[in-house]
Amino acid sequence: MDEKSTRSLLPGGLRDTLPPHAAFEAAVSERLMGFFAEEGYEQVNPPLVEFEDSFFGGAGAAMMRDTFRLMDPASQRMMVVRSDMTVQVARIATTRLAAVPRPLRLAYVGQVLRIRGTQTRPQRQFRQAGFELIGSALAAADAEVILLAARSLRRLGVDDLTIDLNLPTLVPAVCAELGFEGEELARLKAALDRKDATTVSLMAGGNRILLDLLKASGPAEGAPERLSRLDLPAAGVEAVQHLDSVISLVRSEAPELNLTVDAVEHRGFEYHTGTSFAIFAQGVRGELGRGGRYLAGSRNNGPPGEPAVGVTLYMDVVQAALPKPGPIPRLFVPFGTPYPECRRWQEKGWATIRGLEATTDEAAEALRLRCTHRLVGGAPAALGD
User: Fold this and answer.
1) What's this model's pTM, rounded to 2 decimal places?
2) Is the pLDDT score of 266 beyond 90?
3) What is the CATH code for 11-166+268-326?
């Protein structure tokens, strides 16, 4: 392997984003921020690195296994490289913006880094874009987040969306009531993740509630009613009622939106405390995003935090769902061409590539610089003409 090849190697799960994909990613992110701003979500930009006691406090504790740590040479305190931006936005909302009237609407976009990838997303560094509605426990807040996420993706050009609604606190509450804990609880959760009804039935013995939760999953229509007929703990009854209200509100504005309910799904919702959801598109591998209810600013052994709901979109998957960007036409302009002339063509959608010195063969120079056209007599001429 030569030196150039060695220098181009990157750690697993990391990659360079090259033209035109880097510009496309930035443009799509900017459009999303514009969509969010139209509905009052103001953009914040948290730092890439922060102290670990701030990041891991409360909801951030769920990200501990996925987060890189390092020592700050200046303060001698441990820091983390952010693995999730929702946690940071919640910190900003409950500290720097604590006095701002609620509900507070914040948006964000940026890169995150994780210790390991997953089967559906092997990349360890990727861009997130999202928004958070902080300070309201109403079902209308959940509905606003779901609807804005769906509308924004459709405006980008992503069709055939499915919103899979979840209740990640339901299975833990039922399992606690049944007395499952430790390794046995982990095995049971793994069987539920696989939708393995046989193993769930064997482990639950004569109690059918977990099997009934599996069967209750499916189209959103009728799901809350099916769940409400089960003998759920009090917290589960309240969660189902909230879910029912969210479904009704979303349906009233977007009756065509495909909604499903998975009552036993909890993977990836480690810090969520209520109705949560994942977003899929037909023909696209992996989730476009996920979101749901959580407590912003909650701390271990401290105040419970503010009710909040938000969504994070994974830009690598979102881009995969969109038509690939076409090349921008590149116009070679000879050395000495006045800038106003270049600007005239830029306003018409051309990228102007200016010659840095006079040349006797402008066509050859334009080809060398990967131009599609060159400026001849004040007009673009296709190379080869």
Assistant:
1) 0.92
2) no
3) 3.30.930.10
